[in-house]
Write a structure and sequence with these properties.
Layout: H1 5-16, H2 21-37, E1 50-54, H3 59-68, E2 77-79, E3 86-91, E4 96-102, H4 106-113, H5 120-130, H6 133-136, E5 137-143, E6 159-160, E7 167-168, E8 173-176, E9 179-182, H7 183-186
Parallel strand pairs: 1-2
Antiparallel strand pairs: 1-3, 3-4, 4-5, 6-7, 8-9
């Protein structure tokens, strides 16, 4: 059974380090996604059913991971750097999911709901707890085709990049003129770091 909003918000604050409007949205998004899919026990008996795609690297991402139990290390949390306050919750056995997007007008609704509160941050935190789902989110049923290599528990050959010698998991390499290279050697523009 999914815990109460208050309990989940307390846990999210502890896990994230502070409470903010993004935490409230993230908890509510995750609860809505789970309820829509009929996943009642994401941390227990239903934990192998769910994969979550998060489209933003902000506070909501921590809350979503905490509520769903999805983690990068277990290959059940997928990050897409699209800058959108959105997440897709996928029920693996059927490949169906639900994409939940925070509505842009929620900030205006927070101001309208609590004009007596001067702090925009506090307005949002309170309003995001009180507004109904339809006022905060757009929900869309979706189908997600998961590549077997992206599924939890997938096993594959580990190879060494023939240029840098670093190990590569899950077939994340490119064959360049018959040479198997890691992605940063095959496409140097992908590399986020430069040697000193």
């Amino acid at each position: 059974m999914i815990e109460s909003l208050d309990t989940l918000l307390q846990k999210a604050e502890i896990a994230h380090g502070h409470m903010c409007a993004g935490q409230v949205l993230g908890v509510r998004m995750a609860v809505l996604g789970l309820q829509t899919l009929g996943i009642a026990d994401p941390l227990g008996s239903d934990r192998k059913r769910l994969v979550t795609f998060i489209e933003i690297d902000r506070c909501a991402a921590d809350a979503i991971g905490m509520v769903t139990g999805c983690r990068l290390g277990s290959r059940t949390l997928k990050f897409r750097d699209w800058g959108k306050m959105a997440a897709t919750f996928v029920d693996l056995p059927c490949g169906e999911g639900v994409r939940v997007v925070a509505l842009e007008n929620s900030r205006d609704l927070a101001r309208q709901l609590h004009p007596e509160i001067e702090s925009i941050r506090k307005q949002q935190m309170l309003a995001y707890r009180e507004l109904v789902d339809d006022q905060l989110f757009r929900v869309e049923r979706v189908r997600v085709e998961m590549d077997p290599a992206d599924l939890p528990g997938y096993k594959a050959e580990r190879i060494l990049c023939e240029r840098c010698g670093e190990g590569i998991n899950f077939g994340r390499y490119e064959d360049v003129a018959g040479v198997r290279l890691c992605l940063t050697c095959a496409r140097p523009g992908l590399c986020y770091w430069k040697p000193l």
